[in-house]
Amino acid sequence: MIYLVFAHPYPSQSRANQMLLDAVRDLPGLEVCALYDRYPDFDIDVGAEQAALMRAGLVVWMHPVYWYSVPGLLKHWFDKVFAYGWAYGDGAAALQGKDCLWVATTGGKAESYSANGIHERPFADFSRPIEETARFCRMNWLEPCIIHGAHDLAETALGAHGQALRERLEAWLALKVGAGNTAIDVSPSNTATGP
Ligand SMILES: Cc1cc2nc3c(=O)[nH]c(=O)nc-3n(C[C@H](O)[C@H](O)[C@H](O)COP(=O)(O)O)c2cc1C
Fold first, then answer.
1. What is the span of the domain harbouring residue 20?
2. 24-41 pLDDT, tens digit each
3. Residue 184 maps to a domain
């Protein structure tokens, strides 16, 4: 199954991430953990999270980018759940080979993440810690789905991103569940902006 960790501190105020989640949440085989709803006191049930990850073949992290990184509770989730001896370290292989898809939205537009933009660097520079977290645990890092300029995107554009994400997850499910189609493209559709 797919385990989608949704990390928005204020889901009722979210436009972009809520639309992305709504676009995929009814997919069969998808389990959603709305992190801030489940753990409002930051008291993460490590055993439950690790069990969910063990069931998953694909792990999705979906969140707004906060200060060039993940919201605090998702960082805490990494700290607690990706434990030594389980996720990494001698003989640890719990996450090995699982696919990992990072879905993140930014307020900054794509061009603001460049040498001449306000953020001075390509977005890929900021994505490195997230990518390496997955790679360090020997997960299979898929091409991320990064949606820039989330505030300024029209509903139709956000809807297209949601649909593209849905198609990507459907393709993954079809491939893994063995629907008999071996020619499915699980790369991002050209409607999604890469980092
Ligand atoms: C505390 C905070 C920090 C933020 N940091 C960044 C940032 O580092 N880079 C950026 O491009 N946008 C940043 N933003 C903008 C959010 O990424 C943006 O509001 C979000 O992606 C919109 O998605 P939503 O509609 O689901 O909330 C920040 C917003 C907040 C509230």
1. 2-177
2. 999 999 999 999 999 999
3. no
